[in-house]
Design goal:
This protein is an alpha/beta fold. It has 11 helices and 7 strands.
Length: 271
């Protein structure tokens, strides 16, 4: 009698690592069929951590459970949150996915295979999340800006595009393959996504305080550029600490000058 496990696994792959540290995030998924299909797709690739941001009602839809055949536990254990920030809790490296070229000043996407190699090098030591957008319009530019890496699946034609579950299947398959190979583990100690976002906010506050005037007065484009610069290699905790030392010192000097100016104005005011 043949063993059922060996029957279903014609090719044995047992030396993969880091898959427990990979989180799949669906941003506002709109169909229970896709949610169920995604659960089945990722479980087959050894990934079980599924987070849904503001999804359509799916738990009471029979389509969800039908499409999640063999992966009902992923649906039962998935996390449902109201916004993306909540889904990024504890994440050190965020990969966004996109199908179309963006005109904004965003980093150029890499292929799914290239992204998977990067993910496989980080996930043995730190948590990585892969972010997928809405079925009809994908991720917004603002959501992609939060990602350290952007990935796209090469296709022969512009249309038709892959549906959500197909895109997740291909991406997680590449991650599974990369995790089963001898990929050198990254020694980077990435700051969490929350820490990086707080750092960008401090930059934004400082440059506005010293009244830098971006080209075309577009603060959004200016911050896109700043994010693109720092996302090229990613930010470690020690990087943020060093840069914060510079920015906090500059802020203190500015505050001191403002206090002195206010004092001078008061001294020169008519009695």
């Amino acid at each position: 009698m043949s063993d059922s496990t060996s029957y279903h696994r014609a090719i044995e792959v047992d030396n993969f690592s880091g898959l427990d540290n990979i989180r799949i995030i669906l941003c506002e998924p709109q169909g229970p069929l896709n949610i169920g299909s995604v659960a089945r797709a990722i479980k087959g690739m050894g990934i079980n951590d599924l987070w849904l941001v503001n999804p359509i009602e799916f738990l009471n839809q029979k389509e969800t459970w039908y499409m999640a055949h063999g992966a009902q536990d992923v649906i039962q254990n998935c996390r449902v949150v109201e916004n993306l920030s909540q889904a990024l809790d504890g994440v050190h490296f965020l990969v966004g996915t996109t199908h179309r070229r963006r005109r904004r000043r965003l980093a150029e996407p890499v292929t799914a295979k290239q992204a998977a190699i990067e993910i496989a090098s980080i996930s043995p030591r730190q948590r990585v999340a892969v972010l997928f957008g809405r079925e009809d319009k994908g991720l917004t530019n603002e959501e992609l800006c939060r990602c350290q890496l952007t990935a796209s699946i090469p296709m022969a034609t512009k249309n038709p595009s892959l549906n959500l579950a197909q895109a997740v299947q291909i991406m997680t398959y590449e991650i599974f393959l990369a995790s089963s190979r001898q990929v050198e583990t990254s020694v980077m100690e990435y700051a969490t996504v929350d820490e990086v976002e707080a750092f960008y906010q401090r930059i934004n506050n400082l440059v506005q305080k010293i009244q830098i005037k971006p080209i075309n007065n577009s603060w959004q484009s200016f911050m896109y550029t700043i994010r693109r610069v720092f996302s090229r290699k990613g930010l470690e905790e020690r990087d943020i600490a060093a840069l914060d030392m510079i920015f906090s010192t500059a802020s203190r000097h500015i505050n001191r000058l403002e206090t002195q100016l206010d004092s001078t104005k008061n001294d020169n005011s008519p009695k």
